[in-house]
Hints:
Layout: H1 2-15, H2 25-31, E1 39-41, E2 50-52, E3 59-61, E4 68-70, E5 77-79, E6 86-88, E7 95-97, E8 104-106, E9 113-115, E10 122-124, E11 131-133, E12 140-142, E13 149-151, E14 158-160, E15 167-169, E16 176-178, E17 185-187, E18 194-196, E19 199-200, E20 206-207, E21 214-216, E22 223-225, E23 231-233, E24 240-244, E25 253-255, E26 264-269, E27 279-283, E28 287-292, E29 295-301, E30 311-315, H3 316-326
Parallel strand pairs: 1-3, 2-4, 3-5, 4-6, 5-7, 6-8, 7-9, 8-10, 9-11, 10-12, 11-13, 12-14, 13-15, 14-16, 15-17, 16-18, 17-21, 18-22, 21-23, 22-24, 23-25, 24-26, 25-29, 26-30
Antiparallel strand pairs: 19-20, 27-28, 28-29
Amino acid sequence: xxxxxxxxxxxxxxxxxxxxxxxxxxxxxxxxxxxxxxxxxxxxxxxxxxxxxxxxxxxxxxxxxxxxxxxxxxxxxxxxxxxxxxxxxxxxxxxxxxxxxxxxxxxxxxxxxxxxxxxxxxxxxxxxxxxxxxxxxxxxxxxxxxxxxxxxxxxxxxxxxxxxxxxxxxxxxxxxxxxxxxxxxxxxxxxxxxxxxxxxxxxxxxxxxxxxxxxxxxxxxxxxxxxxxxxxxxxxxxxxxxxxxxxxxxxxxxxxxxxxxxxxxxxxxxxxxxxxxxxxxxxxxxxxxxxxxxxxxxxxxxxxxxxxxxxxxxxxxxxxxxxxxxx
Length: 327
């Protein structure tokens, strides 16, 4: 029980990171120099600096110190170098590389490419169709607006697609992937991953956008949380599939590879709406359907027999209480 509460709490953390000064394009426009192109490389032994570009296409390269780099307008190339840097790309289609140490990268407008490099980085794509790559370290990655590509790579990463139709890939490590709004494709890859096709609000309630997402666990013991019309595929090893009464009966989730011999099914329900919940299972010669109070939750292709005693039926109020105790 507390394990499920813990993973929901982890998903809430991924929804609530605050980027101070993340959307300051207007302030940048007011203070920007006259339009021109600028190339600037900081000596490796320079002290901490603020590097500011222009309205043109700039190339700004930091040194070994902890720099703040601001690209302003134009299609910029911004490189942090060593040190824990803060890089704000501004408008334009920018290429941002944090390089060494623990960096904060903010894309803002445009279709940006943001790479964290070494270290545990915090990256926000902003508006536009962005490529957000965590690379090494335990990274926290947000796509935000647009149709984004988000790659965790090495480390135990947190990926959140935000709005738009996003593609998320965890890579190595035990990753947490949240699709956000839109039709998303989420791939955990290696490690024991937590993959959610639903969102979680500040009160711990699961919110379903009722748009089909594709959740793929791949290798490892993964936890997949599905919403309406979502397609869940755990992959290798023993996986946990979570569905709930947020799913529309006419758009049940599909669990492609449930194996009762090794996988786990969990059903969450609102105990105010279902004071006496009843699970049931119907099957024909080829497929089965898991139902709550007679309403379909999940299609189970190839499953014709299911022991309901093996399905965990969990009240959301119990989870909320456990999350409060954990906090």
